[in-house]
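In keeping with the milestone schedule agreed at the kick-off meeting, the structural modelling team has produced records for the first pair of proteins. Each record is given below as a sequence line and a structure-token line. The laboratory manager (R.T.) confirmed that both were archived under the project's standard naming scheme.
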Amino acid sequence: MTASSLGSRLIAALTVGLLSSGCALLTKAEPLSPRYFSAEPSNIGPTSGASLPAAERASSGAGHELKLGRVTSASFLGERLVFRDSPYELGFYEDRRWTEKPEAYFRRALSRALYEQGGFRRVVSGAGPTLDCELVELTELKAPAHLARARANFVLYDSRSVRTEATVTVELPIAQGKETAAPGASVAALALALTNAVDQIVRRVSVNLDAAPLEASSP
């Protein structure tokens, strides 16, 4: 093979490579089209599990005065839906988004369960029992079982002492179906798990206030 022939082949190979790279650079990736989901109760679809019966919620507060204090969430609970493949690893769906941060759903669910449905009387200032809550997890578990998990910490206290503090965890199975319906089934189970966690908090707060004298709120 002559030097000129070898040079021609090298030039041809480089030209093909450059043309291929150019085509790859000019090819546009598919645009990401996120789907947005809400965890409000009106958007909960059929799934396994059930929240506290309405009649039980309505009588749980029994007229107790209560201030809803700080309601927060873990820093990783943001716009993107979260999943777990293992106990120690978190993943985030790029194409599945909440319409609001889970903290907002959690705060509204607590307020609704306590004051609209639970019979508690809202205290906005002065002394009296105060409830602080933190949503520490709202995730889809992929293994070993396909579950929706909601976990929250709460502390009930007054000016004298901490009355009670605990963590509640709710896990519900995610309905299996067609792949295209999987996101909706996951969100439905997550929303119901969050509702059930809130119901557990309300029930425990009510039991504690029933068992201990109520500290009168100041004007």
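The second protein of the pair:
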Amino acid sequence: MSAGDTFRSVAAEAYDRHVGRYSPALARELIATAGVRPSERALDVGCGPGALTGELVALLGADAVAAVDPSEPFAAACAARNPGADVRVASGEALPFADGAFDLVHSNLCLQWCDDPGLALAEFGRVLRPGGLLLFTTFGPATLHELRSAFSEADATPHVSRFIDMHDIGDALLSSGFRDPVLERDDFTLTYADARELMHELRAIGATNADAQRQRSLTGKAHLAGVIAAYERFRYAGVLPATYEVIYAIARAPEPGQPVRGHGGDVASFPIEQLRGSRRR
């Protein structure tokens, strides 16, 4: 096994072990709620090692499913897991597909890691057909609040990503042209023997701090010891909790002629065929 193969298998295993503790259930619930039909074509954005892409493959068939992930090892693991699916290395902010190519865009716990979530939402809308369905989950601001609090006792520099509030996500969907958004939230608590175990797992799945103001230097041993000590005040029943606030979202891409909200107000969009012959003589 090559070094790349070793990294790929270890990364995918760590991702499944951590995210797999709650992530697949979230995605399955969304897909079941939406009533995905066998004739549809679907895109899985931020597919990771491909467990949830497999849910879409089982429903629609491999030739009707595409998937992207910015990590080459994860994309390779997804392709190996789902032969026949169109798996590519790409980010949600630059999808390598034509306008209106999909009936369904699905993204599970990916949006929060995008540099520009608004741009990603715009890309989701671009590749969806008019009236197509967007399903996604993302983390809300209460996520990892225990770890954020422990770091704040050591210094004022952000060490944990700041996640977007549910109401702001709803506004972003409307601004990106989506219609009839429905959003819900839920809290999940995972437990760890100590803070080091949590931090090691977050690094293993690539859940790094995306905050632009984050500290760029390495955390010293004394500083880290202070963070670990501060986290101990959350201990109960012999374990340390880590909270994940998960936001579920369902929305529809706009139909032709439906106004899309812009900075200066609503802007209507029409296919060129609808305008032909409409000019008065």
